[in-house]
# Entry
Amino acid sequence: MLINLNYGGKLQMNYNFAILKNETKDDHLGWIIACENSKYNIKYKVIDITKNDWLENVLSEDFDCILTRATGTISYFKQLYDERLYVINNILKKKIYPTYEEILIYENKRMLSYWLDANNIPHAKTWIFYHKEEAMQFAKYCAFPVVAKTAIGASGSGVKIFDNKLKLISYINKAFSDKGITRKWTPNLRKGKIKERILKRIKDIPGFLRYLEDRHKSATIDPQKWFVIFQEYIDAIAEWRTVRIGDSFFAHKKQRKGKTFSGGGGIDWDGPSDKLLDFMKMVTDKRKFLSQAIDIFEDNNGNFYVNELQCFFGFIHPHHQMIINGKPGRYIYIRGKWIFEEGTFNTNNSYNLRLEHIIQLLENDQL
# Structure
């Protein structure tokens, strides 16, 4: 980080960032847009962490911070990313954003389960079996319905709900075989706005076919084998998508589709209670997380349970994650009270807000 005087005699901050590109072509573009549109003078270098020269490139310059984009589509690339980022952050002591711990639990439902247990955070009881005999014993005596999940799988693509023993046993047999469990890859019809989505896709048929090919590859090339993840079914009255980036808090309610909320796509712009905001703050404060979306179940008794934690997440609306009384905005926590601040804080898929947070942390020597 350099501090220069511009022609007006004002202090001007200069930053040098590395942007880690993963195996997905455009995942890192949000960081590029944020850097190029920033009010600060930012130099950046894109480094493909999947390539053999990744370490040489990381060491090529003295970067103020390394901007990550965690991967979560194919397990062997997820392993590559986690391993190489461990070297960058924990051995080379390079500053990264978000934290390594946030990236480690991203799109890894096994690790997330262990993390939630160890931190005593309320969540659905989870069973992870690496022995077929254990899984079969569980199937004999468990209470139904039972939720099965794949370790990787966004928007509910790896989620199945079983209501009877025979189907659960069939799932276990498939998981503990060479075939394994594949995730859903076809377009999500539960998201709604089907007509608008079809019209958008037919404008670019070759692009749509490439999109389907990529989804099919990521879902079927890497079936989950030799272990299973089961969860108790929580009969929730609501699921909230909550987001924290730095000191900015957002929340909206997902619309229910059948027995599930995830992947439904619809939003109810109901305002969050202070109790929900407190819960979100508690979860992210626990390990000083910097950038998180937390999907939270709410039951009939007003209890909250973490369903998912994601340091990078999808967006339905391009500019905001919350609307209160018809106005987009965020909550901030000031002297023990939640204060609503109007504004559009989630442009560029919240990468602009993340970049502002990074610079704030660097200026205060907190990263």
